[in-house]
Amino acid sequence: MPTADLLTPGRIGGLDTPNRLMMAPMTRSRALAGGVPSELAIEYYAQRASAGLIITEGVAPTAVGLGYARTPAVETGEQIAAWKKITDAVKAKGGRMFMQFMHVGRIGHSANRYTSEPLVAPSAVRANAQIWTDAHGLQDMDTPRALETGEIPGVIEGFAQATRNALEAGFDGVELHAASGYLPMQFLSTGTNTRTDGYGGSAQHRIRFVVETLEAMIAAAGGAAKVGMKISPAIPFNDIQDDDPIETYTTLVKAVAPMGLGYLHVLRTPPIPNIFEVLRPLYPGTFAVGGGFELESGNRAVASGLADFVVIGKPFTSNPDLAERFAGGLELTPFDATTFYSPGAKGYTDFLPAAVRAGESDVAVGL
Ligand SMILES: Cc1cc2nc3c(=O)[nH]c(=O)nc-3n(C[C@H](O)[C@H](O)[C@H](O)COP(=O)(O)O)c2cc1C
């Protein structure tokens, strides 16, 4: 059998895929007021349907979990109906799609929220960072309220209900965002989790929130294959800090390995350059790697057995047909970071597939 590479058909989350390319979850800040995804998102995601698996931008499971300007949720009937239009469009183009649940925990500002409830976190430790608000520009993050032990089952149930909502909206599965310093990672990390109950202290206790949330999502989804997870050990982002990330994440990955998740997505960041080599031997299931990959490095990761899938982010913003471009050896359009989070179509839906661009005049190509 020839060696597999990025463009070899694969299987993930119980789905057959035409390639091993995952579109990374990417917040694009184009949602409407009240956490409703916009009509523009229908076209944006449908344009990217040739990815092996699309992961949505971070979506708040509940209003309390939403912290950024113009970001979506999946709690109300209006939000679910808007997501359904998106999955319909992606499916009509033959695509597959998981929704990422991003509960921000302590990362947020009241001006970005459509609930008057305060931010919640494992401990009342404010993130020493600023966040964009449309109303007042950059602001210091709010100080979160520490969750009572007795409230935690309710937070976890929020993820279970969001799972049911996402499946109702036509998603093939759901991903727990346990990376980038948001609520699950706040529980995992010693700097943000100073609890003295069964959810804080030892690594076994700090992983408990994540494990129980995954269990609840699996029960709600009716199977572990429909649930994935993203982690980013030691990422220097959102003021997150852990005394011993290797201990924390080896403990977590060993606990999660028997669950039979659809996949584990590990984002490699500079503090631990060999994190894939550390975690891969502990995880027999579908293993997806991300962080700065392109065609050659992605091919190598799959061919060497380091990864089953490769997650690509920024290049997908400006190359909706990334799989076709890789397959055809076509040039990639450079991404434009100035439009990552800006409202409107510019930099969002106006990067066209190479096949379309080739048939157009030079004037139209400069998008
Ligand atoms: C504009 C932008 C928004 C992002 N939003 C999210 C997000 O909502 N959830 C998430 O897990 N990661 C998010 N990320 C991180 C990506 O998923 C990915 O891990 C990161 O960009 C590294 O992959 P790359 O080097 O291929 O871009 C975002 C990245 C970018 C560039």
Could you write a compact summary of the structure shown?
The strands form four sheets. This protein has an eight-stranded parallel β-barrel with strand order 3-4-5-10-11-12-13-14, surrounded by four helices.
What does it look like?
The structure is a single chain. With 367 residues, this protein is an alpha/beta fold. Helix content is 31%, strand content 16%. The strands form 4 sheets. The chain has an 8-stranded parallel barrel, surrounded by 4 helices. Strands 1-2 form a two-stranded antiparallel sheet. Strands 6-9 form a two-stranded parallel sheet. α3 runs parallel beside α6. The radius of gyration is 20 Å and the shape is globular. Residues 24-27, 57-58, 100, 102, 177, 179-180, 230, 267, 290-293, 312-314, 340 line the site of flavin mononucleotide. Flavin mononucleotide (FMN) is lined by residues 24-27, 57-58, 100, 102, 177, 179-180, 230, 267, 290-293, 312-314, 340.
